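Fold Annotation — chain and its backbone
Encoding — discrete vocabulary of local shapes
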Amino acid sequence: MADAVRLPLEKFFEREARHPNKRYLVQPMEGGRLEELTWAEVGDQARRAASWLRGRDLPQSSRIAIISKNCAHWIIADLAIWMAGHVSVPLYPNLTADSVRQVLEHSESVLAFVGKLDDWPSMADGVPAGVPVVALPIHPKSEFNYHWKDLQATPPIRDDPKGQPDQLATIIYTSGTTGTPKGVMHNFSNLAFAASHGVELFSTSEDDRLLSYLPLCHVAERMFVEMASIYAGQTVFFAESLETFLEDLRRARPTAIFGVPRIWTKFQMGVYAKMPAQKLDRLLRLPIIGRMVGRKVLAGLGLDAVRIALCGAAPVPEALLDWYKRLGLDVLEVYGMTENCGYSHVCRAGKQKPGWIGQNSPGVDVRISEEGEVLVHSGATMQGYYKDPAKTAETLTVDGYLRTGDKGEQDAEGNLRLTGRIKEIFKTSKGKYVAPAPIENRLAVHPRIEQVCVVGDGLPQPMALCVLSEVGRQEAANSARPELELSLRELLEEVNGVLDKHERLQGLVLVKEIWAVDNGFLTPTLKIKRNQVEDAYGKRFPEWIERGETVLWHE
């Protein structure tokens, strides 16, 4: 494929020349104003910032951090760092000061761009002394060494630096459900391989619209939004906040959207908050009316123009995908990791096999190890972990295959099914191994369960800790509680009926906390931190097992 070797900056310069006045980035500003930047304006600002960076005479491939929520200048800063010959190091916008320091010191970042943030004071102390901080146009009220306008006063660079295929482009620190984040190294060739193949796979074009709302520092958003827009020329809209998210979605009316399972569940719960699940399901079963209702629901969510809907980053309940299909939207499951630019497997429209996550993406080779681990290899596979050769050798095989840590199997058509995480499989006190993810997927179909974590390491039998949805919590607090409890008992009975004896759940524990990023239960990409769940509730496990209740309320 000709585009496979075209590097990101080369593609950006090509797009800039092709349609300089086309709208590229749409950024909500204070007071409800929208700032719209064309490809030419983005190129000019990036060139000026790159010129300023070059003027600092930093060593080639210096690491430069980006600490910001999603915004137009996140992408512009990234382009500027690359044009200046350096390496971008994105940080999650909600890290603690200790975590900020850990990443900046480990990466040896020499400068940091700081942009849109909710709580910069709690992060600022993590910036090591001697590391200058540059404020992007949207920034917290604070003291900064430099401001974006200082960089824009610099004459732009006059060359079009494209970089080299093997040149390090970025170090992406994993959010990590356990342990210390690792710095995943990707060169320009890795990004080019994944982006060029992905654009071809989904047939995206400059007519498409994207909404950027998941953290751009996460590989999925980086590839699906930043890289895809550079390679296909889409217009990118940015979400302003959680409070305005639905409004942002309706304004953008994206034609392509990527979401983690929790986001797709949130959409569903929002619909159920306005219309009971039973009523909606009854309407959707009606031939003509069902299609009209489905279209109306999608329009209310701002999803009526979507032609490419993807879900990934965590196991997706089959019932959730089926629900959207009944609305008229095919949500395709994708599978990938930070270590391979998120480019590995995807379901094909009209060819989904229930319970399977699709076939290899073009250029991806797969094999299953003797232990049942899924091993993948492609031009998107990382160069290794920064300053950690031992972990790199542990994760990459001698012939360059990536050990995913997922157990799985392939069928004759090349479809892949994941059967659990190798490291997440636990052993009960009876010596039996249990994979929690498939059980959690079965429980997640209940319209009142928003989050679930199956535990059981060292216990006689597993049990499931559940967080109810907002509607579920309301019902639990009023006269609907007995009916809710009955439906949960029926769910437990139904799930246990299809599990092996050693996997069967003793009960469901309905915890009172809502698991969120802020209280440490979720990673920034909304995955549940199992170790945090076990640390928070572990002391109660023996007592809950002893009580033997099928539905137990953790008051």
